[in-house]
Amino acid sequence: MVWFRSLIRFSVTKSSSSPSITPRTANPFGPYRSPTLSWLAAAAAFSSGPPSAAAAQEPPVMTPYAGLAPTKAGEKPRVVVLGSGWAGCRLMKELDTKTYDVVCVSPRNHMVFTPLLASTCVGTLEFRSVAEPIGRIQPAISREPGSYFFLAKCTGLDTDKHEVQCETVTDGPDTLEPWKFKISYDKLVIALGAEASTFGIHGVKEHAIFLREVYHAQEIRRKLLLNLMLSDVPGVSEAEKSRLLHCVVVGGGPTGVEFSGELSDFIMRDVHQRYAHVKNYIHVTLIEANEILSSFDDRLRHYATKQLTKSGVRLVRGVVKDVKDRKLILDDDTEVPYGLLVWSTGVGPSPFVKSLELPKAPGGRIGVDEWLRIPSVEDVFAIGDCSGFLESTGKPTLPALAQVAERQGKYLAGLLNKIGQDGGAFANSAKDMEFGEPFVYKHLGSMATIGRYKALVDLRQSKLNTDNLWYYNTTGGQRLISCWVPKLVHLAIGISNTRDELEEQILCGN
Amino acid sequence: MVWFRSLIRFSVTKSSSSPSITPRTANPFGPYRSPTLSWLAAAAAFSSGPPSAAAAQEPPVMTPYAGLAPTKAGEKPRVVVLGSGWAGCRLMKELDTKTYDVVCVSPRNHMVFTPLLASTCVGTLEFRSVAEPIGRIQPAISREPGSYFFLAKCTGLDTDKHEVQCETVTDGPDTLEPWKFKISYDKLVIALGAEASTFGIHGVKEHAIFLREVYHAQEIRRKLLLNLMLSDVPGVSEAEKSRLLHCVVVGGGPTGVEFSGELSDFIMRDVHQRYAHVKNYIHVTLIEANEILSSFDDRLRHYATKQLTKSGVRLVRGVVKDVKDRKLILDDDTEVPYGLLVWSTGVGPSPFVKSLELPKAPGGRIGVDEWLRIPSVEDVFAIGDCSGFLESTGKPTLPALAQVAERQGKYLAGLLNKIGQDGGAFANSAKDMEFGEPFVYKHLGSMATIGRYKALVDLRQSKLNTDNLWYYNTTGGQRLISCWVPKLVHLAIGISNTRDELEEQILCGN
């Protein structure tokens, strides 16, 4: 109530000249230095004197290279997770926080439900619907005294010292000088994901938008609407209208196909209604060097091709060799003018992953053994798109899918919980431990939406295959289902759940 | 189906060298030049040759200073509306689109429900809930051949020629060279609103965030979350934590009070749960030079002061004289370190309104007569915050409230519809017309939310005042109501509706 009283007093004594009752001449922030009002007590260096005096007194923002020191006996052992994607989040969700403190380091404070990201670009889903805050996935991170989320990126790794070096990430309008800090770990899980591949093509990073983060989807939505409005301005040439409203998608994998489908839905459903003046100028072109949806069965591919074409998406076979401000150049020198360019030609390891001095798997991923650990160093594991089985394991590299990453996160959480229960949670204490069952990946099926509320589901490799009960309309183990997006959400989640749940959800999905 | 066939053909004949069946060596964009595939036909200059040849052939983006020419007999007369706020949108909504074509020029393609903007900063409401696209407010704008919305700002006005000069607005990551165009009007409605006042204080525009647009609320939300996360980084000094989490609001009008209330709700409801590590460092300070909520009754002000203080908001009487990167300076040289600074000290006319060579009302607003027209020129009207009654009318300047703007928009739409029916819709054709009833403003009451789902409603000036039915708890014409936000929405909308609706909604609001 102190401040309430101050305010009342201020208004009564405004014209008085006595310092004791005219806080206007005193420092109204003074009371906060008293120990009983502790929240600004620490900020005692905040001065009410002239700026120069204040500058001289100002405390340093950071203690030099601070961090989280190694855990001691009596403290909880610390699992440090680098990354907040499918792999890292599933791991954190399942980690036993009675056994471990969890520290997550990521430049993104939420997990993105990537399979539905394309639907947010045109408003089918809200951005909020596809993002889940880390603190909600693992509440201990916001509540336990030793658990943290740090909005930062990892810049270095010292496996001998059991330590990672980090720096804060504050991209955006008010970019700050990054703050550096170290974190000691008992167990380290590298789940850094992958980066969009550009194959070194000039201009892609400058002019194309990827579709991997929520801010990408926001940028696509913004640009699409801006171009719709710009193309309606009086005096814009016909050619410029066509360019502005030419949406080009490069890459015919599930993301590219899903986004093309969503775009054509948007054009038919919204543009024809709400931008009637320019509806005949807007078009979608999907450029792919090989087949679209190459991981899917032939018949599903043909179905998708037919559906997309019916929705007005032009499918072009071509290889992009250069991207400029308003047009891209194919390798036969065809120029394709565009107003919006979305790039989704797959992923590869990030520069940081490439720079790590750890054994590598094929494709430059971090090499792991059957238990997803890096065998040459102690207490370090790698999961998700950044990792791959070492050639010595004899196992193939798994595809860069949410399904793989999520399953690995779940497996590793179980393994770490078991190690913790067996007394191996602290650094260097699980050296001779038996890890038990290795990680085995079972593909449950693939799915891609293709617009018009239709989706492909390919279950050839799934064990469900043998069970004919649900396949009244099957053609050799794969089939087409037509369902609404909300049901697809269940399906997509179901794919990474147990077999029983999947069966149940596919049943509901029909 | 052409492209579907092309794709199939591509994959079959990939290795063939005949141009007729290997589109890889031909231009796959060729077919779109044929007249039957008209959408890119206009883009015939898009070349498949080398870039230099293409550049030589590229058509100009704009025809030089194009625009909408004066309407002719047989066409519909054109009402041009500058702005898309409360005044302009209500006007457009009610305009008879059988009589008029409507052309709106605004740098914002939606209307913002400003009284609820503060609630979006902390997630109480979604951004989408407070924004309504212009095309939905007046569907003719997206459908009628002669009606348009232009994402542009007005840069000049020629009342003799009945013409406005405009240029496109494309602020953001891909700022384009603005395109210029002219629009001829039959009737012009200036509804450009006002700009946030900074009183010339140095640093406000650079470091403070206003709260007038959706992107302001987004920026506040982003910065608040960023600071919460940064303050948790290991090694950050206690003083820096306090600074980062010190939210300062300057200006104790309804916006400042509402935002302070929302912030303290957010701290109590979310920060204590989800950012438990730093919950003791976050604080809200509201700085006001005079009284908070000075337009409200004394007793309501005291109630608000008590409630805000109870919620942890510090109320400080002070005048800001300088704003720096991380601290502001009061006129008694007190330094106030802040992590987030929100500025809401009222509004004043924009530089463009100031520059218009039209008679002015007190405060630099565009001067209008009782019918909201600018008497010295033909067919030009001004409504909302940018306008004020000329001194010659003997009427006082109305407050810059949504309520005023909306009522003026509604009145003027009725007047323009009447003029149209009486045959005065075209330029210079209403010179000697009788305009009928002048605009009369009746204040229905004021409302401000103060957090914790509480609000003040001041109905002293309302005619409802005389009706004691709803005031079972009244103290001299004003009273406190406590209700949920969704009901407040109804109330807020109700305030600008008819008296009967207002009474009904206040009844429901209890």
From TrEMBL, chains A, B:
Naturally occurring in which organism (per UniProt): Ficus carica
Bilayer disposition of the protein: Peripheral membrane protein
Keyword Transit peptide attached: yes
UniProt cross-references to Gene3D superfamilies, sorted A to Z: 3.50.50.100
Residue ranges occupied by any FAD/NAD(P)-binding domain in the UniProt entry: 78-409
Keywords attached to this entry: FAD, Flavoprotein, Membrane, Mitochondrion, Mitochondrion inner membrane, NAD, NADP, Oxidoreductase, Peroxisome, Transit peptide
Organism placement in taxonomy: Eukaryota, Viridiplantae, Streptophyta, Embryophyta, Tracheophyta
EC number assigned by the record: 1.6.5.9
GO cellular component terms, A-Z: mitochondrial inner membrane; peroxisome
The protein's name: NADH:ubiquinone reductase (non-electrogenic)
Cofactor: FAD
Entries under InterPro entries matching the protein: FAD/NAD-bd_sf (IPR036188), FAD/NAD-binding_dom (IPR023753), NDH-2 (IPR045024)
Membership in a protein family: Belongs to the NADH dehydrogenase family.
